[in-house]
Amino acid sequence: MDKELIRKYNIPGPRYTSYPTVPFWAVNPTKEQWKEHVQNTFKKTNKTQGISLYIHLPYCESLCTFCGCNKRITVNHAVEMPYIETLLKEWKMYVDLFDGERPQIAEIHLGGGTPTFFSPESLKFLLEEIYKTADLHPEAELGFEGHPKNTTREHLQTLYDLGFRRVSCGVQDFNPTVQQTINRIQPFEMVKEVDENARAVGYTSVNYDLVFGLPHQHIDSIEDTIEKINTLKPDRIAYYSYAHVPWVSPGQRGYSEEDLPKDEEKRILYERGKELFEKNGYEEIGMDHFALKTDNMYKAFADKRLHRNFMGYSVLHTDLMIGLGVSSISDSWTCFAQNEKKVEDYKAAVEAGDLPIFRGHILSEQDELIRKKILDLMCHFESDFSGIATEEIEKIKERLAEPLKDELLVIEGNSIQVLEKGKPFVRNICMAFDLQLHENAPKDGRPIFSKTV
Q1: Are residue 346 and residue 368 in the same domain, yes or no?
Q2: In angstroms, what CA-CA distances link 400 with 2, 101, 121, 328?
Q3: Is 217 helix (H, G, I), strand (E, B) or coil?
Q4: Three-class secondary structure assignment of 133-147
Q5: 353-392 pLDDT, tens per residue?
Q6: Which of 344, 362, 380 marks a domain boundary?
Q7: Phi, psi (deg, nearest 5) at residue 42
Q8: Do 123 and 57 fall into the same domain?
Q9: What does residue 322 show for φ and ψ, rounded to 5 degrees?
Q10: DSSP per-residue string spanning 56-108
Q11: pLDDT tens, residue by residue, 212-256
Q12: pTM
């Protein structure tokens, strides 16, 4: 990896789970407008695509200091059922918008927080109540995030019986010093037990999240962690770049930037990881992800069906994604809407009989067009300029001049192809298309995104 390229392109930039990205949402919908967008998309796509459902379960028993997710720390499990009852009231509000037509659920993802903070009985109650008013799509993909500390055999069996076939566990790093610093203590034996239980129950896709760039992390700990993970042979591995955003996640102030691997040192951790993954039969999929050729994610990537939304990469594309729970983001393809970020505010809105959204964005035709271009880059490492106004194409090409000179991509006629050398910098290449970023970035230079490398 060229050190000069890393220094050059390691700048703050979005991860592009949406376009426009959240900081640049500007055309805020009223709640009535949001309902109309949901209804219109549902009518068009429910019988063919179905809908996706993201359920945010925010509770954790302890704080992982590196984490940038919306979470609530508590050891009081009495919070489970009141929160679930609120989720179900929110779900009913959406079902009521569908005019008696039962939604086909193509995808469910239980995210957090820690979904397995909730007991198997609580999760069963939540899902069975949802299933009473919906049908599962024949090709439904159901997955959940499990914490190795509290994902029991009973959790795995209960969710399997409800149609779940994919489980993802956050590992991050097995090095004791790293784990101590980020307050995520989980030895390999604990992860192995979850893996063995998942395979015994019948899960067909097991994923582990690893993170590079963590405090006190070095090449030896990465090699040791990946060597251990490879003995389990998960179907997928997500290898995320640590996002240092202490202005968003105060827990990250528990260590200094001096404790973090810098620039090329950090990138070497990724390159070494990638080398070890590929040596063990994994293929690089989009950004940050690796999969065995037998996994659905690889097949979707190979067939150019891979999709990206607020849940990350997905093997299914649904235009309508409903987010339930505190801070969840919903997407009707023509409009975004985010729920209240505080549990108390979220509950208060739902109890008042109101959808708990507090902000969103109605996409313009140009937004939808640029979104498609960026999605193609993020999912397939290729895109084109078709449909974009001539003057905007010239601006985009100007911003691509340096990546083109550095041989990160090629432009042939109307098409753009990211080269192997450019894959680590795909976020930078997407930024060239990001009209909102260039028109509305803060003039004072304050950071609003983590660094791209």
Answers
A1: no
A2: 18, 47, 53, 34
A3: coil
A4: CCEEEEEEEEEEEEC
A5: 999 999 999 999 999 999 999 999 999 999 999 999 999 9
A6: 362
A7: -60, -45
A8: yes
A9: -105, 125
A10: EE-EESS--TT--S--EE-S-GGGHHHHHHHHHHHHHHHHHHTTTPPPEEEEE
A11: 999 999 999 999 999 999 999 999 999 988 887 776 677 777 777
A12: 0.93
